[in-house]
UniProtKB/TrEMBL annotation:
It catalyses: an acyl-CoA + a 1,2-diacyl-sn-glycerol = a triacyl-sn-glycerol + CoA. Pathway: Glycerolipid metabolism; triacylglycerol biosynthesis; Lipid metabolism. The lineage of its organism: Bacteria, Bacillati, Actinomycetota, Actinomycetes, Pseudonocardiales. InterPro entries: Acyl_transf_WS/DGAT, O-acyltransferase_WSD1-like, O-acyltransferase_WSD1_C, O-acyltransferase_WSD1_N. One of its GO terms (cellular component) is plasma membrane. This is Diacylglycerol O-acyltransferase. GO terms for molecular function: diacylglycerol O-acyltransferase activity. Signal peptide: none annotated.
């Protein structure tokens, strides 16, 4: 049987256009070890691990006439050097220059005629650092057979890559002919005749049908619609996006969140959301927005879940697409940071008390840098909802608190880059790692050109909450 794209994955391809590329990104900054860490060493490392990610050497092949969903086939012309590229900043490159490059890279759609991932090795960062910028299409990372590349290349101890000890024996399978694609499609249609009508509607350019198909495919995510069904509050974040992007990042200390938690309770995730609420409040006021006391912004907050009979210890292969998206009204009109925290803690308790929610301690047991995969799954969940019911996406996935390495290079910082939907001008990814909490803010260049100001306000909001007299 052909390896056919799921309805969800196909919908991500159908709905993608030049201004809303549907790939998730990551920015990993490494300290260059004494013996160096260069492009060839990265190539060696990726080549060594690709055998664990067969999807990364496969491309999407459409079926003639779109009478069925596309299939995954081996890329007979696979070129690792095309997917792992090198770049450099004017030496010594600043973080701001790196983030400008990230914004440019994330704005570019990927070639659907090749495997849907890219990685950029960025040299000449100040402080003898290098960066790895990754892009992975949402159709690729499903959390079952395929995880994000960033999760696979990181280890808990430095490990030199020996290219001759890991010979690549991969040989692509022959690409099916058009006749075979049609024959397989007819066979599938006989078994599932209801899909034929939907495939024909999509072939005719019915984007609404594709969107309906997308929303109807994600089991469990409709819980968010049951939680809140009214439209999202109006504001500057729901604007048609352009083809340009801006990216900003913030690094804060995890101990500050733990200290606040010890004073009042709640979870670190509650505090992260409260800090972002305070930053969004100040940002809206700085743009001249009028905020009454009950004003809110609605965030789509994807959270990892497990079925009740699943053991606490799990691996990436058992994540099984279990990410549910919850809608949370952020109280940006509330001037008191303590009341903001109490409001958010109360609203989140219904989710975190669920027997299906995944505790942070369980997330930390996932092999490698699990947040890379979890952010991809969260973006898939967010992409399944109408932009009319939320203002922005916020994903938060805890990471390990011990150092990780790519080859011999120590991972110093990690920032997620969450894609924008058609009418969402801002998406925020949050990851904790080795004592720090990292925020990646991806914005539309026209609607949220001042995303750097919002990033600075994240630090101000944390200081405000930490300095409050409990």
């Amino acid at each position: 049987m052909p390896d056919r794209l799921s309805a969800l994955d196909a919908s991500f391809l159908y709905l993608e256009d030049a201004v809303t590329p549907m790939h998730v990104g990551g920015v990993a900054v490494f300290e260059r070890p004494r013996d160096g860490f260069d492009y060839e060493q990265l190539l060696c490392l990726v080549r060594q691990r690709l055998g664990y990610l067969p999807r990364y050497r496969q491309r999407v092949l459409p079926v003639p006439g779109r009478i069925a969903r596309p299939v995954w086939v081996d890329d007979v012309d696979f070129d690792l050097n095309y997917h792992v590229r090198r770049s450099a900043l004017p030496s010594p490159g600043s973080d701001e220059q790196l983030f400008d490059l990230v914004a440019q890279l994330m704005a570019r759609p990927m070639d659907h005629g090749r495997p849907l991932w890219e990685a950029y090795f960025v040299e000449a960062l100040a402080g003898d650092r290098v960066a790895l910028v990754t892009k992975t299409h949402q159709a690729v990372v499903d959390g079952i057979g395929t995880v994000e590349l960033g999760q696979l290349i990181l280890d808990t101890a430095p490990q030199p890559c020996e290219p001759y000890d890991h010979a690549d024996t991969w040989a692509p399978r022959r690409m099916p002919s058009n006749a075979q694609l049609v024959l397989d499609a007819v066979s599938d249609t006989v078994q599932r005749p209801g899909e034929l009508v939907e495939n024909i509607r999509t072939a005719a350019g019915d984007a609404a049908a594709a969107a309906d198909k997308l929303s109807g495919t994600v089991g469990g995510l409709v819980s968010a619609l049951r939680t809140i069904t009214r439209p999202a509050p109006s504001g500057p974040l729901n604007r048609p996006v352009s083809g340009g992007r801006v990216f900003a990042a913030v690094r804060t200390r995890l101990e500050n969140y733990r200290w606040i938690r010890a004073q009042l309770g709640g979870t670190v995730n509650d505090i992260v959301l409260t800090v972002l609420t305070g930053a969004l409040r100040e940002w809206l006021l700085s743009r001249g927005e009028s905020l009454h006391a009950s004003a809110t912004l609605r965030a789509l907050v994807p959270m990892a879940v497990l079925e009740p009979d699943t053991v606490e210890f799990f691996t990436a292969g058992l994540v099984n697409n279990q990410v549910e998206a919850h809608l949370l009204d952020l109280p940006v009109g509330e001037p008191n940071p303590v009341l903001r925290l109490r409001h958010i803690s109360h609203a989140m308790r219904v989710y975190t008390d669920s027997s299906r929610s995944v505790a942070a301690r369980a997330m930390l047991k996932v092999g490698g840098f699990a947040p890379a995969t979890m952010h991809s799954l969260a973006a898939r969940a967010a992409g399944s909802f109408s932009g009319r019911i939320f203002n922005l996406v916020i994903t938060n996935s805890p990471g390990p608190q011990q150092p990780l390495y790519a080859g011999m290079a120590r991972l110093a910082e990690m920032y997620p880059v969450i894609p924008l939907a058609r009418n969402q001008a801002l998406a925020i990814g949050v990851t904790s790692y080795h004592g720090n909490v990292y925020f990646g803010l991806n914005g539309d260049r026209k609607a949220v050109s001042d995303v750097g100001n919002l990033a600075a306000m994240v630090e101000d909001s944390l200081d405000e909450l930490k300095g409050t007299h409990w």
